[in-house]
Amino acid sequence: MVVPQFKLMTIERHILEQQGRHPEATGRLTNLLYDLALAAKLIARETTRAGIANILGATGDENPHGEIQQKLDVYADQVIFRMNDHTGRVCVMASEEHDELLAIPAHHSPGYYVLIYDPLDGSSNIDVNTSIGTIFAIHRKLTPGDGHGTLADVLQPGSKLVAAAYVIYGSSTMLVYSTGNGVHGFTLDPSVGEFLLSHANIRIPSGGDHYSVNHGYQHAWTEGIARYVRWLQGLDEEKRPPLSQRYVGSLVADFHRTLLRGGVFLYPGTEAKPGGKLRLTYEAQPLAFIAAQAGGYASDGLGDILDIQPSALHQRVPFFVGERELVEKAEWFLREYDHAYLEQYARLRGS
């Protein structure tokens, strides 16, 4: 009998093969990515049994952004921190759920990488069983010496990222990551507890037929955004086919669809809130890095998200991501119709 030949690729094997392309690699980043995959498995286990485990619902506390923390927010945050606080691979961490940096305990040796994470994006959708996610960003330590990391190590432009990843907890659990050599997706097989390669070398397809935006804020849109969305809908060009609107309200879920199906996702700023809602370091940078590695583009309306030098730990930015042509068209509409808004936002950003 001839045994069928196929390559069963676990995420551990894939990360190790990626490391093998770099003779100078020490294995520290490989092991850090292993740790994040394990953290994702633990979080996935709880998200799929949240109801019976009695961890649905709010804690009664607020995070630094005034948002009510969910019990799973706290669990995910603690799992990621405890998975990385003692390994000697991370020098400092930053979580969207905390005002300040998360220092490595004094009795553990700090490492060479900076870990920034949004432990559970879209957590307001937890109790209605909608897809949610986790986002990771990894930088190299800048501060000289073997000491602990500082704010300067965290506030680096996205172009300096060495790796980024997200996990989406939905009908299946997927982990999508990039170390600068393309984008690869792995689906968790719960029967064996392994992430298996299911989406190799992901590229954002051109000609996507969806756009994603919260129309509930249409009353606050600038003229440029309003005209851009009309353009996406095909209302101003008779020969342009309209895009269909899709919006989940969980950033990871909306981004994941855009990554696999094309189109564009936008969360713009407004005149009242020119910086928008999404956080630069925790959300926009890592997803922009992944989009760029998949052949797409991410912008804040002024230019490439990856070129922005962060000025604050919880800095917010407008966010446009997806097919390059569609994102650049958004920039064009802003330049044409939103001069005052762009000047206001540029001052806020410090550019």
CATH topology name of the largest domain: Fructose-1,6-Bisphosphatase, Chain A, domain 1
Intertermini distance: 67 Å
What is the alpha-carbon Rg in Å? 20 Å
Quaternary structure type? single chain
**Backbone structural class:** alpha+beta
How many beta-strand runs? 17
The sequence of SSEs as H and E is: HHEEHEEEEHEEEEEHEHEEHEEEHH
What is the global morphology? globular
Total helical elements = 9
Provide the low-confidence segments as ranges. Answer: none
**Spatial order of the strands forming the largest sheet:** 4-3-5-6-7-8-9-10
Q: So, CATH architecture of the largest domain?
A: 2-Layer Sandwich
Helix content: 25-40%
Which homologous superfamily in CATH is the superfamily of the largest domain? Fructose-1,6-Bisphosphatase, subunit A, domain 1
Mean pLDDT: 90
Domain count: the total is 2
Short structural summary:
The protein is of the alpha+beta class.
